[in-house]
Write a structure and sequence with these properties.
The protein is mostly helical and about 70 residues long. Helices cover about 50% and strands about 0% of the residues. The radius of gyration is 21 Å and the shape is elongated. The two termini are about 35 Å apart.
């Protein structure tokens, strides 16, 4: 199907879901990349304390703080 026809169907409120390849869908810049980092024990303990206080994992708090700083 050509893009113009796809756009027309979408603009008319018709479902276009059958025309999408949902198995290979990706959001740009959200692919994961595993890294290793050495951090002093006192920082890890502080991360764990804060993560426990707000009820999330250490990894989640690191991601959250990095996203706040760089996002």
């Amino acid at each position: 199907m050509k893009a113009a026809k796809f756009d027309e169907k979408f603009d008319n409120g018709e479902s276009v879901i059958d025309y999408l390849d949902l198995k290979n869908i990706r959001k740009p810049n959200l692919e994961l990349k595993r890294i290793n980092i050495d951090i002093p024990v006192w920082i890890v303990e502080s991360l764990d304390k804060e993560a426990k206080r707000i009820g999330i994992s250490r990894q989640a708090i690191i991601k959250m703080w990095l996203a706040e700083h760089f996002g």
